Amino acid sequence: MSTSEQKRKVILVTDGDRIARRAVEKAAGNIGGRCISASAGNPTPIDGEKIVDLIKTAAHDPVVVMFDDKGSCRRGRGEKALEYVVSHPDLEVMGVLAVASNTESIEGICVDCAVTKYKQVVNGQVDKEGNLISGNNIVMGDTVDVLNEFDEQKVPFVIGMGDVGKMEGKDDAADGAEVTTKAFQTIIEHWQSRQAH
């Protein structure tokens, strides 16, 4: 399995707590995707190898996977699993939803754009509440630093966002997880435009 057509298409989310899980499950359904719910946890409860096995058994693409370091500034279980999944030759990463957190002593990652809690796609930095706080295209989060090790071939598109499922109620799963859904739609649109060129 090596050609792009045969690779499973995945969207990665750097958050995985209970509230994020509900929002990601809802948003994945909204875009016609599948969610690997077993990848949710704070921190990530299963390793990268198990996650890849689950991705391969998903009914169809895109497959959405969650990763969480539980606020650790060191390379935790979420980042280790994320690294394994991004590096896997049978998978194609459509994009990453990089989630902001309050973690200290982290590098952060440069993002292509961000989604505010009002579902606006912007160039700039959002905080944990989904507010645009600066014009810098960066997200500070506890499970994102490892992404800096990969080039655009492996991680073609990174979108920043506030705390999944929260953002002062704007991303509540019960109301459709609209912010996360918007982020997923933006990743898919970008991926489709890349395929067209």
Produce a short descriptive summary.
The chain is an alpha/beta fold.
Elements, N to C (H/E): EHEHEHEEEEEEEEH
Please write the CATH class name.
Alpha Beta
DSSP, total strands: 11
Overall number of structural domains:
1
Overall average residue pLDDT: 92
Report strand order across the widest sheet: 2-3-1-4-11-6-7
Shape: globular
- Sheet with most strands: 7 strands, mixed
Strand content: 15-25%
Secondary structure tally, helices: 4
* Range of helix content: 25-40%
CATH architecture: 3-Layer(aba) Sandwich
Which fold name corresponds to the CATH topology?
Rossmann fold
Radius of gyration: 15 Å
**Span between termini:** 23 Å
Poorly predicted ranges (pLDDT <50, ≥5 residues)? none
Helix/strand/pairing class, anyone? Answer: alpha/beta
How would you characterize the overall build of this protein?
This protein has 197 residues and is α/β, with parallel strands linked by helices. The protein has a single domain, classed as Rossmann fold, CATH 3.40.50. It has helices at residues 18-30, 48-57, 77-87, 178-196, and strands at residues 8-13, 34-35, 63-66, 91-99, 109-110, 113-115, 121-122, 125-126, 132-134, 138-139, 158-161. The strands form three sheets. It has a seven-stranded mixed β-sheet, with helices on both faces. A two-stranded antiparallel sheet has the order 5-10. Helix 2 links the parallel strand 2 and strand 3. The longest helix has 19 residues, at 178-196. The chain is globular and about 40 Å long.
